[in-house]
Amino acid sequence: MDSILVTGNGPLSGDIPIAGAKNACLTLMPATLLSDEPLTLTNAPRLSDIRTMTVLLQSLGAEVTALQEGKVLAMSSHGLTSQRAEYDIVRKMRASILVLGPLLARFGQAEVSLPGGCAIGARPVDLHLKAMEALGAEMDLRDGYVHAKAPSGGLRGGVIDFPLVSVGATENALMAATLAKGTTVIRNAAREPEIVDLAQCLRKMGAHISGEGSSEITVEGVERLGGATHRVVTDRIELGTYMLAPAICGGEVTCLGGTIDLVAAFCEKLDAAGISVEETEKGLKVARRNGRVKAVDVTTEPFPGFPTDLQAQMMALLCTADGASVLEEKIFENRFMHAPELTRMGARIEVHGGTATVQGVERLKGAPVMATDLRASVSLILAGLAAEGETVVSRVYHLDRGYENVEDKLRAVGAKIERIKSQ
Ligand code: UD1
User: Fold this and answer.
1) 88 burial level (CB within 10 Å; 0-12, 13-18, 19+)
2) pLDDT for 45-97, tens place per residue?
3) Using CA atoms, how far apart are residues 100 and 132, in angstroms rounded to an integer?
4) CA 252, 254, 259, 263 torsion-angle sign
5) Best of 26, 146, 166 to mutate for ligand 1, by most ligand atoms within 8 A of CB?
6) Looking at residues 340-360, what average pLDDT do you find?
7) How far is 253 from 13, CA to CA, in rounded Å?
8) Which of 117, 195, 321, 375 sits at 20 to 30 Å (Cα–Cα) from 128?
């Protein structure tokens, strides 16, 4: 397995291009299953998770062709041969569950293996199943698979009232409702930019949707959906991650294509920590000029709150803040696995349940550390940039699931980072 060698750095300067959103692309791709006409996505990120979704869709008989080095995905589901998502593919990525709604809506049945994914808590799929039931489907869990069957006339509109906000379950419900008969109301819907992006794409395909971006989405089912071309929204998590590089090392970096609306709650915390963020025509210009960052408290929440997917990276920044910061993780249990690794680098962190208290130290020290999940991997790289000496982050395969060319992007702004290929 590859590892990444990071050497502590001085100030960074330059531009970092931000890719299309992994999490948007992972729900836009299964949307192709809703139609027999082509769906083309531009601004797709080049990541192993996207390749996993490609393999999954191809296993169902969909055509998926990566053009322009993977930045464009041309898809067609006119000749679908299967409605069964096999364990061998699904176990690699939890987002595989997103084929459930589209398959069920278009073909009246689906079999999807229960998913795997990052080891950051239990992460059940009960809300996805309840949403399909609210549209009239019968759900049966057998042999590690979800067996879903629509009523004889197909899915019918209904009220889906989520007891807690789920991004994936909202996406599955939204896709399924586009082809259900009648009106569907999704209450306590997730409001993430990726949901808005999905709704915009589905609308281009002919769906009747209103209210996306609010907590109540209404869908009027249509008979069939057509083709579309859609540009994937900017990745707000990649954006926030790279915004932290100059925040940690000092200097000034512009994250190309970034806008404040994607990361407003995160920007508020950066501001409180003493980091300046300015929206320019090119993107977000982030600068840290003088002194240590200030300690800030952070609580993760569904959008528009502070994203859980930036919690680990924010912790890396706060490890060297002046004072104590309290980070509360409200979305996932067991999402502080980066804390013991940061401690190996000299950070002072105490974790009690879903709360971590970080007592800032003057400087971290390089150490061999191990990546445990996608966002933890990149937080260790960020911490390495701020540390004295060398840090080797091992087991970085998670990183390639969510960040394209991380070494190239950071090297381009002056970071000392290289990949050590496994033998
Ligand atoms: C998505 C993102 C992930 C992000 C997360 C929260 C994708 C591909 N992944 O994951 O990067 O960290 O949103 O912003 O878009 N839950 C249940 N039952 C369910 C579904 C979820 O109890 O059926 C719980 C989860 O365990 C978690 C919470 O709901 O505690 C939120 O999870 P959810 O929003 O569904 O996350 P994902 O869609 O899996």
Assistant:
1) exposed
2) 999 999 999 999 999 999 999 999 999 999 999 999 999 999 999 998 999 99
3) 9
4) negative
5) 166
6) 97
7) 5
8) 375
Closest atom of ligand 1 to 331 CA is 30
Nearest CA to ligand 1 atom 26: 123
Q: Closest ligand 1 atom, CA of 122?
A: 26
Helix (H) or strand (E) holding 242: helix 236-249
Angle of helix 311-318 relative to helix 374-386, nearest 10 degrees, comes to 20
- % of the chain at pLDDT higher than 70: 98
Q: Give the residue, by CA position, lying nearest to ligand 1 atom 22.
A: 124
Q: How far apart are CA 83 and CA 59, in angstroms?
A: 9
360 secondary structure, DSSP code: -
Q: Sign of the CA dihedral 342, 264, 309, 19?
A: negative
**What does the pLDDT average to over 384-404?**
92
**What is the pLDDT at residue 118?**
45
Q: How far apart (Å, rounded) are the C-alpha atoms in residues 120 and 30? A: 24
Structure tokens at 367: 């150490």
Nearest-angstrom CA–CA distance, 171 and 209: 13
